[in-house]
Amino acid sequence: MVCLILIVTLKREIAMKSEKNSSPVAVVLGSDSDLAVMQSCIDQLADFGIKPAVRIISAHRTPQIAADFAVAAADSGIKVIITAAGMAAHLAGAIAARTNLPIIGVPIVAPESPAGLDALLSTVQMPPGVPVATVAIGKAGAKNAAILAVQILALADKTLAEKLGHFKKAQAQKVIQKDSSLSDM
Ligand code: RP5
Fold it and tell me: How far apart are the C-alpha atoms of 130 and 71, rounded to whole Å?
């Protein structure tokens, strides 16, 4: 009997440890149709050496899974959650309601959407007390969500902070080069 309890406890600890080893960033998509836009978020995270945990979870179609995910996220080692959804985009808010982790929301333009304004307002207009850091609509927002997540993590990660420094310098250098190539015209 004692042996059985020990085995069960050990198994639980191993499971918890492997959960803890999950990525510090989760990218949650409201639908697989959001992936085309969010690939630039995943790629940008990869440039910083982060392989995010990517999930498809819908606030409306799979509400219980969304709730369970949000409640378990911090204990599984996730530090920042990026969400992407279109139309009545409640995914970011539904997750933010159930965790104290920082949530970054990317509004997506759905085919029937008025240019993504529906998703933008649904994501950004959170009531006081439950913030969602809402970025720009579409691909620009997807990329910025990744950079913002890295900026949050970099507060406690020197290597990431250095990578961010290089990223910003390289970005500035590109603009300077474009500017000087104009003077050759
Ligand atoms: C949202 O509705 C999703 O995030 C997606 O942007 C939009 C349309 O979803 P699908 O009908 O393509 O699955 O919940």
Answer: 15
